[in-house]
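Data card: per-record layout.
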Amino acid sequence: MTAPNRALIVIDAQQEYFDGLLPIQYPARDQSITNIQAAINAAEQAGTPVVLVQHELPAEAPVFGSGSATWQNHPEVAAREDAATKRISKQFSSIFAGTDLEAWLREQGIDTITLVGFMTNNCVIASAAAAEPLGFSVEVLSDATGAIDLTNDAGTAPARQVHETLMALLHSNWAAVTDTATWAPALRTGAPLTKSDLITSAAQGRSTR
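The structure for this 209-residue chain is written out next.
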C-alpha cells in the first residue's frame, strides 16, 4: 500500500453541539473536543493540511444561524482558525455538497481525508459516503466524533448505539475507523490504515450470532 497524502477535515465543531439544541451525547462531548484538539495538533506537527468546516444557515434558523453564538466554532477550535489551511462554510450534510472542497483537495494532491467532528449520524456519515464516488479514501476517528440520542416515528436509538453502529457500518465499507491515539503515529510515519469490507464484516457478524 502506498503512503496516503492526508488532509484532516474538522467538521462542524461548533457551539450548537455544546450549548445549542443538538448537544452531543456520546462519546462525551468534552472528551471529543479534546481529541479533536489532539488530532489538529498531530496534523500541524506533521505538516498535514487542516480544513475547518462550519455549517451555516440563515440568521433566523433555529440551529447554526449565521453569526449566532451557537454557529461559532467551539473555543478550542476557534483558537485554531487563523492557522487552518482552509476554511469552508457548508449548508448540506456532506462536506462536498455546494463547496469547493473536492477541487481544492485535488489541487493539493490529497487522496485521503481524515474526518473528525460532528455529528456521526449526519455530516460524518454523509461526507464519508459522498467521498466514495469521488475516489477519496476516508478515515474516521471514533473518539473525535459524536452522536445524539434519536427518537422519532420510526423508533428510538440512544447516542451510544447510534455511534457504535455507525462506526461499525463505516468500517465495513466507507472508511478506516480508528481512534486518535492510533491515527497520530500513522500520520507521522505515513502508514496507511486498513478497513474491513462488507463480505468480511458479514461473515464475522454471522459467526457471532
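Known properties of this structure: The helical segments are 16-19, 29-46, 75-78, 101-108, 120-134, 159-171, 180-189, 198-207. The beta strands are 6-11, 50-55, 86-90, 112-118, 137-146, 150-152, 155-157, 176-178.

See the next section for split statistics.
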